[in-house]
Amino acid sequence: MEYKIFWKAIQKGHIALAQQLFPYLTFSQAEKGTIFQAALKDSNYFYIFLIDQLTEEELTPYLHKALLASHEEAVALLLQKGADPKMPTQYGEVPLSLAIKPQGTSIKILNDLIDYGADIFQENRHKGTPLLKAASLGLIEVVDFIVQKGGELNEDVLSRGASNNHVNVVQYCLAGGIKVPQKAYYMSLFYGHGDMVKYLTKVDRQRFTANCLYNPLVIAASNGRREILELFLKKKLPEERNERVTLCSTALMAAVEAGHGHLVQMLLDAGADINYMDEGESMVDVAQGAGHKNIASYLIRRGGCNHKEVFHKNVHQFIQ
Length: 320
Description:
The N and C termini lie far apart (92 Å). Among the domains are: 157-206, no CATH class; 213-320, Serine Threonine Protein Phosphatase 5, Tetratricopeptide repeat (Alpha Horseshoe). Helix content is 61%, strand content 0%. By secondary structure, it is mostly helical. The protein has helices at 2-11, 15-21, 29-40, 46-52, 56-68, 72-81, 95-98, 107-115, 130-137, 140-148, 155-163, 167-175, 182-190, 194-203, 216-222, 226-235, 241-258, 264-269, 283-289, 293-301, 307-319. Residues 310-320 have low confidence and may be disordered.
């Protein structure tokens, strides 16, 4: 009977009643965790009583729960009692990153974690750091706090802010002397943030280079973004001819594969090589393989070569 009364009190938020019953009942570890989370939502101090009952091994898992609840007093108490500020959760998230949320991130909690030894460079299982998470969420106050604590402001931070459409993060990085990398353009387009790309183009005078894993022209062409592609062709192409040819040719290949025929002539005019090869396939091969017969025919009329057809014909003649 007491168990039913206790859990009904927890469900309805009557924490004072639950606290009175708690010492006379026995609970599993999972149940204790649920009780603790409920206590953190209440204004009384039942959570302190619960923390005092914890074993040394239980302190850190309960720290994770307190961080999820953004409960400043509980976090501070658990750290004082010996909870590990570096131990990841069972899902691979580190305490500092766990404390960073879209809304309600506590600078006091972040500061307490660092004071007790949390590593601002510690990565979670996805190789993300607390600074990158703050940049992803556009939390400029948190970004600045971590930087002031020694966090490294770099191109990855700017790219993370840009790809999540946070102009404030980009501006902060630019003010810190960080240059806009091609990755920022690429990832912004990948996530559909055309306005961010236009902003980056406005504030960044660097030209694109072919010596980079991320070619923004490719993602623009693949997505059929004519206005963005025109912007890139006008303001971002490099002076060196071979680099221009490479950037435009790979973009043309992407446009052809995606069936964006309205971009083909534009890229050819910009210097794309109509017979550019990628992994043994020509533009015509890619168009035919993707079922874009009209684009394939247009490329052939412009001088494009069907590499696979020529290759098979040569093999056949050789066998004969």
